[in-house]
Amino acid sequence: MHNFLFQIAVLIYFVSTIGFLVQVITLRKDVERIATIFLCVGFGLHTAALLTRWLAGEHPPFVNLYDSLSFLAWAMVGLFLLFQWQHKLKSFGAFVVPLAMLVMTASSLQSKAIVPLPPSLKSIWLPIHAIICLSADAIFALASCIAIMFLIQERQIKNKRLGAVFQRLPSLETLDIMNRRCLTLGFPLLTLGIITGSIWAEEAWGSYWSWDPKETWSLITWFIYAALLHQRLTVGWRGRKAAIMTLVGFAVLVFTFLGVSLLFSGAHSYATWFK
Questions:
Q1: Nearest to 74 by CA among 64, 66, 86
Q2: Residue 193: exposed, middle, or buried by beta-carbon count in 10 A (0-12, 13-18, 19+)?
Q3: What is the mean pLDDT of residues 129-145?
Q4: pLDDT value of residue 38
Q5: Separation CA 131–CA 270 (nearest Å)
Q6: In this structure, how many other beta carbons lie within 10 angstroms of the beta carbon of residue 131?
Q7: How far is 208 from 211, CA to CA, in rounded Å?
Q8: Is the separation of the CB atoms in 80 and 135 below 8 Å?
Q9: How many C-beta atoms surround the C-beta of residue 116 within 10 A?
């Protein structure tokens, strides 16, 4: 059942993605409403897929690449719907929803088999740590979309080409404020994710920190976002510098999430868990 619900959610997300892309071209409010309705339906089915997979496997669905990517996409969509409900950013869906669809597509290409948990993962810290970390990743994904929108809008203004693209994007001030809000939400979660991971590591392996490749790169990611937050709050970084640094941080985050897990062996390697 969970596989069926997941596939239907992927299909509905795809329809919603097309709708948001059409909306940013036509600026039709009715198209945006329809795309949002489809997205909400897809989100509901995706939620049901995650819950039924949890029940079927009798453990939280966060233990392999399929599960992690699926939850990440779910968190991105849920946060996008919340942000839009609160702030109503113009054309935001045309940037976020295609990215979430890309993550869902990557998830659908992974093995969906449910396998027993290895002893090291049988802990209450699994859902706590995974939900916190993946939620932080989702927030930073939204921040990267906002940063891209900012750089596009800034280029339009700098080149004095205030045409169709300029009309379709929020103001630079609005985008910069939203970027900062994402950072101030995501960074505490990233910090808490590292802390809970350390507590879990001590429980599972008897050491809070072992310089596993994932731990090392998570710390590098933390330092990048800490530097960005510091520059924003104390030096007053705004605009282009903050947007570029946001994208740099997200690139490192993606490598930490995917590259390290797939390329390096260690306690956090998906292949290592299920040998």
A1: 66
A2: buried
A3: 95
A4: 96
A5: 17
A6: 17
A7: 10
A8: no
A9: 12
For residue 72, pLDDT over 90 is answered with: yes
Q: Are 52 and 2 in contact (CB under 8 A)?
A: yes
Q: For residue 166, what are the contacts with CB-CB under 8 A and spacing of at least 6?
A: 153, 156, 157
Name which residue leads in pLDDT, 50 or 261. 50
* pLDDT at residue 166, rounded to an integer: 59
Do residues 183 and 147 lie in contact, with contact meaning Cβ atoms separated by under 8 Å?
no
Q: Which amino acid is at 146?
A: I
Which residues, 6+ apart, have CB-to-CB distance to 117 below 8 Å?
59, 63, 126
d(CA 187, CA 172): 22
Distances (CA, A) of 214 to 107, 126, 144, 209: 20, 16, 21, 11
Q: In angstroms, rounded to a whole number, what is the distance separating the alpha carbons of residues 74 and 42?
A: 9
133 phi and psi, to 5 degrees?
Answer: -65, -45
Domains in the chain: ranges and CATH = 1-112 (1.20.120), 120-275 (no CATH)
Smallest Cα–Cα separation from 257: which of 84, 77, 108, 73? 73
What three-state secondary structure class fits 244?
A: helix
Mean pLDDT, residues 27-32 taken together: 86
Which amino acid makes up residue 196?
T
CA 201 to CA 194: how far, in whole Å? Answer: 10
Higher pLDDT, 104 or 260: 104
Summarize pLDDT for 170-220 with one digit per residue, the tens.
888 999 999 999 999 999 999 999 999 888 888 867 777 777 788 888 999
Q: What is the pLDDT of residues 218-250, one digit of tens each?
A: 999 999 999 998 888 887 777 888 899 999 999
Compute the distance between CA of residue 161 and CA of residue 273 in angstroms, rounded to an integer: 53
